[in-house]
Design goal:
Structural class: mainly alpha
Shape: globular
Largest sheet: none
Low-confidence stretches: 93-98
Radius of gyration: 17 Å
Oligomer: single chain
Mean pLDDT: 80
Length: about 190
């Protein structure tokens, strides 16, 4: 009860466990249980919505074809549409319900890299550089694994894609926070 009915400070843990479980289940070609965990993740906290692109990617890698599973795409799209319609009704202004417009893409990427690197330092420039190194390393290892056609790496690629998407979403939603506040605790741990 505490995890499923609480605020995001606790619900992120449940959502991330469900995302991890959904990725592993999709890797093992158990689509419906993966979708069920994806739904729980999506209902737990906003970053849980990012399970759907990760499940589509894992499905493409598992099925070894460039046509995604219609069940995952359809249900994921339905969840996103429901969320966006609900979000629009709940918000009273611009991006995130505030008075501002959508953030600049390069600003979001810069902040996401700094968030990833903030696990190692509080200096913004150094954190951004470390985040860039971490992301580049992850992308390089993912490309290497894809080239080797190793199915054992598929869940890791799915988890990495979810982490990248989470970093971008967290950075976009917290641009107004000061650097140390934006990178504390659960916000930076998704990058790990």
């Amino acid at each position: 009860w505490n995890f499923t009915r609480s605020m995001s400070g606790v619900a992120w843990f449940t959502a991330n466990l469900c995302v991890l479980g959904a990725i592993v289940l999709r890797w093992r070609d158990r689509v419906w249980p993966a979708v069920a965990l994806g739904l729980v993740a999506s209902l737990s906290v906003t970053t849980g919505l990012l399970v759907w692109p990760a499940l589509v990617l894992v499905g493409l890698l598992v099925d070894r074809r460039w046509r995604p599973d219609w069940r995952v795409v359809g249900i994921g799209a339905g969840v996103w549409i429901w969320y966006l319609l609900s979000f629009e009704r709940a918000s009273t202004g611009g991006f995130g319900g505030g008075d501002r417009n959508l953030p600049a893409p390069l600003e979001v990427v810069s902040q996401a890299l700094a968030t990833a690197g903030s696990l190692f330092t509080w200096d913004f420039r150094v954190a951004r550089l470390l985040g860039l190194v971490a992301v580049a390393t992850g992308l390089g290892l993912g490309a290497w694994a894809l080239r080797r056609r190793s199915s054992d790496s598929t869940p890791w690629i799915g988890l990495f894609s979810f982490s990248l998407a989470s970093l971008l979403l967290i950075a976009a939603g917290r641009l107004d926070f000061t650097f140390p506040l934006r990178t504390q605790g659960r916000y930076a741990c998704l990058a790990a």
